[in-house]
UniProtKB/TrEMBL annotation:
SUPFAM superfamilies registered for this protein in UniProt: Nucleotidyltransferase (SSF81301), Poly A polymerase C-terminal region-like (SSF81891)
Organism the protein comes from: Ilex paraguariensis (yerba mate)
Gene Ontology biological-process annotations: tRNA 3'-terminal CCA addition
Protein name: Poly(A) polymerase
Record-linked CDD domains: NT_ClassII-CCAase
Length: 337
């Protein structure tokens, strides 16, 4: 593939002292400038953590089937209790949040930025979701454009930064998943909770299914994301085989997240990554290049390459590098228990 020759990396065979990303952890008080304020416990190293979730609600053709699958017990927590301060939010994002809030719209931070804030990390970007229609977002900010045909969002330009803003109304229509059949609505959630829950249900991994209201200072966890952060686990929200068939780029995203955060895959997610690894070739070369650039950036290139090798993705994406570095990755680190 053309991408193989276009993506090189410096590989020094004598220096691969990777710190193990396979950890079991609990969140303690978050301190700035730490990858996560966590305490680690000694336990056998393995590629994945035990997964007790029943994901038998997928038919052979990858469609969600009607089942009695229950949603995790959802939590509503004070942001200060888990170490989040609004001062951690970048200024351009605060400008967007304040602009929409002043007009009476609900605004939340959602996805990986909430996860990173909980871990005491600086998010590379902040995703905003609002009760406003995208056209209302356009009217609120002078430098704003709607991009994307299939999944339209707003790009709001603040100074030299771009803040991505999505709408609950747009997100509600973009997914083909049957919420009422496949998942049980959490007990005790009102209509507003239901709207937030449906949006979180559309996301990729439980640790990305968190929503933060910076004004009420509340974090909503409908998908069990906080528990998986404690366990340092990457697990899909819907059954992994269905999730990766729905969007094969999630396979690369799973590797990137696990490598960057030092997390493990759930057993079911790991198996789906193995089984569906070749499906990433469905992505166009531009998307593959973008995903690989993300993966090899932010100081996580070594861990990413190890995981790509372990799951057979290195041979698919970077065969030239595999020829030179494959033997280096053979280490006890990868033994499964």
């Amino acid at each position: 593939m053309a991408i193989a020759s276009g993506l090189g990396f410096a590989c020094r065979p004598h220096h691969f002292p990777i710190r193990s990303p396979l950890r079991h952890c609990v969140i303690s008080k978050v301190r700035p400038s730490t990858i996560a304020a966590i305490e680690t416990f000694n336990e056998p190293e393995s590629l994945y953590v035990k997964d007790n979730t029943n994901h038998d609600s997928v038919s052979p053709n990858g469609k969600l089937m009607e089942s009695d699958r229950k949603a995790p017990k959802w939590k509503k927590l004070g942001s200060k209790d888990i170490g989040i301060s609004t001062s951690m939010i970048a200024r351009p994002t605060r400008v967007v949040l304040n602009g929409l809030k002043r007009k009476g719209y609900e605004v939340f931070l959602v996805g990986g930025c909430v996860r990173d804030l909980i871990l005491g990390r600086t998010p590379k970007d902040f995703d905003v979701i609002t009760s406003a229609e995208l056209k209302e977002v356009m009217r609120t900010f002078s430098r704003c454009e709607i991009i994307g045909r299939r999944f339209p969002i707003c790009h709001v330009h603040i100074d030299d930064s771009i803040v991505e803003v999505s709408s609950f109304s747009t997100c509600a229509t973009k997914s083909g998943r049957s919420f009422s059949l496949a998942f049980e609505r959490p007990f005790g959630c009102d209509q507003k909770d239901y709207v937030r829950w449906k949006n979180c249900l559309q996301r990729d991994f439980t640790i990305n299914g968190l929503m933060f209201d910076p004004y009420a200072k509340i974090v909503y966890d409908y998908m069990g994301g906080l528990e998986d952060i404690k366990k340092a686990k990457v697990q899909t929200i819907v059954p992994a085989s269905f999730s990766f068939l729905e969007d094969c780029a999630r396979i690369l995203r799973a590797v990137r997240i696990a490598a960057r955060l030092g997390f493990r895959f759930s057993k079911e997610t790991a198996q789906a990554v193995k089984n569906l690894s070749c499906s990433v070739l469905k992505l166009d070369k531009g998307r593959l290049l973008m995903e690989m650039n993300y993966m090899l950036a932010y100081g996580s290139a070594e861990a990413s390459l190890r995981l790509l090798w372990r799951f057979g993705l290195l041979d698919i994406l970077l065969p030239i590098q595999l020829h030179f570095a494959g033997s280096i990755f053979c280490a006890p680190y990868f033994s499964e228990t």
